[in-house]
Amino acid sequence: MKIYSFEKGLLEWFKKNERKGLPWRRKRISAYEVWVSEVMLQQTQVSRVVIYYENFLKRFPSVEELAKASWEEFLPFYQGLGYYRRGKNMLETAKKIVREYGGQFPKTKKELMTLQGVGAYTANAILSFGYSKDSLAWDTNLQKVFGRFFFGNKSEKFDEKNFDEKIKAEKKIFNGAVMDFANLVCKKEPLCDSCPLKKQCKFFISNGKLELKQKKELKNSFRIETARAYVFLHAEHKMYYSSNTKKYKPFILPIGKVRREHIKEYFLNKYGLTLSVRPPHKRGYIVGRPIIFVNAQILLGVPVFSVFDRQRVHDMMALISFDS
């Protein structure tokens, strides 16, 4: 009964509050157009993606057109979205779709997941939105809404397959409903007072204490503004660059140069390189000083550094000891 009420309440809310005007919400949309939107929407705000999406499809209206493009032709229509490995994957996937599938995206999850950069969520989204298949597209939005409503915590681990089988609505509509609800009501700081599901929502009933408890456990006193960035500069994680000619050494930036925009500016001004910079993947203290590890990939420019392979870098990283 709780699942039925959840499904019914969500769909009723969606009828009145659906986000209008999103270009990837058209009734007749190709699997290619769905794929482009899903790649761009990964960890990027909807408002930022809209203009990129529209301009991209004007330049590359079909997978065949995209497959012909070089990286230099592609980059101006993608640059600014970040996570440039996604862009490389797009070009590789487009070529594979044309070469092996005659320009048509596969219609099975198994085949879709053989494509570069296509995981379980993107595969399900293509099947749901592009082919109207009966698939829940599990992503952070669905995780958050289901986790809070049924368990009181957006990060709760649960059996997704169980919900896949019990949700009876048309999945294409239901997926859109959850995504809009997650963005408009069940936000990072949820608007519980305006939530039509709150009477049965475990997050609301527990006053958010289950999620707050986890937040407190994860909270860290790490002071990013006084940290140093250890930057691991690479080309697609295959070649790593070092300013030291004899042994691999990450680029160690001045104190406070830790934000992504700082790191980009530093390498552009000092070395003439345009970078894609990822969020820190490790942090800690060395001799009491805060340190972050950051991966950065060269997009444009010619590096004049010594080159080391991936194994040498991993061996070096293993030697760096953080304070216990």
UniProtKB/TrEMBL annotation:
<dbReference type="GO" id="GO:0035485">
    <property type="term" value="F:adenine/guanine mispair binding"/>
</dbReference>
<dbReference type="InterPro" id="IPR011257">
    <property type="entry name" value="DNA_glycosylase"/>
</dbReference>
<dbReference type="InterPro" id="IPR044298">
    <property type="entry name" value="MIG/MutY"/>
</dbReference>
<comment type="similarity">
    <text>Belongs to the Nth/MutY family.</text>
</comment>
<dbReference type="GO" id="GO:0006298">
    <property type="term" value="P:mismatch repair"/>
</dbReference>
<dbReference type="GO" id="GO:0032357">
    <property type="term" value="F:oxidized purine DNA binding"/>
</dbReference>
<keyword id="KW-0326">Glycosidase</keyword>
<keyword id="KW-0004">4Fe-4S</keyword>
<dbReference type="GO" id="GO:0034039">
    <property type="term" value="F:8-oxo-7,8-dihydroguanine DNA N-glycosylase activity"/>
</dbReference>
<protein>
    <recommendedName>
        <fullName>Adenine DNA glycosylase</fullName>
        <ecNumber>3.2.2.31</ecNumber>
    </recommendedName>
</protein>
<dbReference type="InterPro" id="IPR003265">
    <property type="entry name" value="HhH-GPD_domain"/>
</dbReference>
<comment type="function">
    <text>Adenine glycosylase active on G-A mispairs. MutY also corrects error-prone DNA synthesis past GO lesions which are due to the oxidatively damaged form of guanine: 7,8-dihydro-8-oxoguanine (8-oxo-dGTP).</text>
</comment>
<dbReference type="GO" id="GO:0000701">
    <property type="term" value="F:purine-specific mismatch base pair DNA N-glycosylase activity"/>
</dbReference>
<dbReference type="GO" id="GO:0051539">
    <property type="term" value="F:4 iron, 4 sulfur cluster binding"/>
</dbReference>
<dbReference type="GO" id="GO:0006284">
    <property type="term" value="P:base-excision repair"/>
</dbReference>
<keyword id="KW-0234">DNA repair</keyword>
<keyword id="KW-0408">Iron</keyword>
<keyword id="KW-0479">Metal-binding</keyword>
<dbReference type="Pfam" id="PF00730">
    <property type="entry name" value="HhH-GPD"/>
</dbReference>
<dbReference type="InterPro" id="IPR023170">
    <property type="entry name" value="HhH_base_excis_C"/>
</dbReference>
<dbReference type="Pfam" id="PF00633">
    <property type="entry name" value="HHH"/>
</dbReference>
<keyword id="KW-0411">Iron-sulfur</keyword>
<dbReference type="GO" id="GO:0046872">
    <property type="term" value="F:metal ion binding"/>
</dbReference>
<feature type="domain" description="HhH-GPD">
    <location>
        <begin position="40"/>
        <end position="184"/>
    </location>
</feature>
<keyword id="KW-0227">DNA damage</keyword>
<keyword id="KW-0378">Hydrolase</keyword>
<dbReference type="InterPro" id="IPR000445">
    <property type="entry name" value="HhH_motif"/>
</dbReference>
